[in-house]
Specification:
mainly alpha; globular
Length: 231
Amino acid sequence: MKAKEDLPLRDIIFASLREQILHGDLQPGTHLGEVALADRFGVSRTPLREAIRLLEQEGLVKIYPGRGAEVASITEKNVHDVLEIRCALEELAAELAVDRITAQGKSDLRRAEAVFRNSINSPDLARIADHDEALHDTIFAATGNPVLQKVISNLREQMYRYRLEYIKDQTTRNCLVEEHHRLCEAIIRGDKEEARKAAGEHIRNQESTVLRNLAAREKNGKNAASSNGKN
């Protein structure tokens, strides 16, 4: 692996901005001013524009002609579109894992479940999200299908934002522990129907929670704007 200092400027800027977007340091709608960012990174606008185009390809940034770039919003349609695909992939992975998981795979799955469970009280949301991702990656690895793993990997960046949104509330994290346990136990005992059902319900619960949080945030934003307008 290349050292960070050996990476092209474009990749360094891309990685930095991507991390800030995924972790919420750059909120949806934030304008990405070229002059300010070029000064901040100490670069010309060329590598900066290349980095922003890469972020656009991942769905993390929107570029508007004449207006520049801004952090992409999490919209109801985007949540549905991404999680609809993820739901189908997770259900398929659960079924295949039941048929193909090895003894070592079962051990890895139990370990991944335990690591996630032990992380849910951490104040570091990114750490919890990473362990959640690792558990699902263990299930995908158990399918023995590298093509399936690659397909889910292509959605990884957009799904990460929803993972963070999903785990913000402690109650949700407790539900996640239960959902993960149900899914993992079904795979380990070889119950294909239950594994598929648990995987699908897990993702659909995530979608409904994220959409509910977005609606509440939008409502609060409108209320705040209305209150400011009256002052």
